[in-house]
Amino acid sequence: MNYALLAFLTTSMATTIGAFPAIGFSKISPRFQNATTGFSAGVMLAATCFSLLLPALDIVNSPESTKLSTFYICASFLCGGLFLKLLNQVVPHEHFGTGREGSERLKEIKKIWLFVFAITLHNLPEGLAVGSGAGSQSPELAYPIMLGIAIQDAPEGFVVAVALISIGYKLRTALLVAAFSGVVEGIAALLGYAATSQVSETLPWALAFSGGAMLYVISEEIIPESHRKENADLATAGLMLGFALMMFLDTALAMP
After folding, report:
1. CA angle, corner 153, sides to 226 and 193, nearest 5?
2. What's the mean pLDDT when you consider all of the chain?
3. pTM given for the model
4. Those residues with Cβ within 8 angstroms of residue 193's Cβ, 6 or more apart along the chain or in another chain
C-alpha cells in the first residue's frame, strides 16, 4: 500500500469533488453553512483527540519512556498551535464573514487570493494530520483520519465554491479555488508523511504538532465562523455529529 499516494489523493480530491455540486447554486443557506462548518469542527476536534494526540501519547508511554517524553509531546502540541498563529499573522487572508486578517504589507493583492490564502491556512493542518498518520504505515492509525478528513472536506469544498459564487466570482473560478485548496492540503499531507515515514522516531512529535495546529484552527477560525449568523444550535448539533462520526470511525477502523 502506497500510503503517500493515498494520503495525497484523499486530501486533494475530497474538496474538489465536494465543490462540483455547487454547479447550479448561486447562494447557500446560512443555516446549512453553519451546520456544515460545525460538522467540520467536530470531525477535526475528534481527529485531534483520538487520531493524533492519544496515539502520540500511547507511543511515548512505553516502559522505556521518561516523563520528558510526555513533556516533548506537550511542547510539540503547543508548537503546532504557535506555528499556525504565526502564519495567521504573517499571511494576508480574508474570510467570507470576518474580513481581512494578517499582514497589511500586501494591500494591493487581489481579493480572490486573500480567500485562497485563508482556505489554505485552514487546510494546512488537516493535510499535515493526514500525512503524519499515513507516515506511521499503520492502517489503524492512517485510515480513520484519512476518511474522517475526507468526509468533512467534501461539504467544505461545496461551501467554499458557493460562497465565492455568491459574491460574484464565476463558477470556473470557484471550482479552481476549491481544487487548488485541495492540492495544497495534499502537498501538506506529503510533507507530514515525509516527516514521519523516513524517521519513525519523529512520529509522536509530528502527530502532536499536527494536533496543535488543528486545535488552533478549530478554536480561532472554525467554531467562531460556525456561530457567526446566530445559528449556534445548528452549529453545535453539527459539531456533535461530526465528533461522534469521527470517534466511531477511529474505533471501527482500528478494530482487527
Report:
1. 125
2. 83
3. 0.83
4. 3, 4, 7, 131, 132, 134, 135
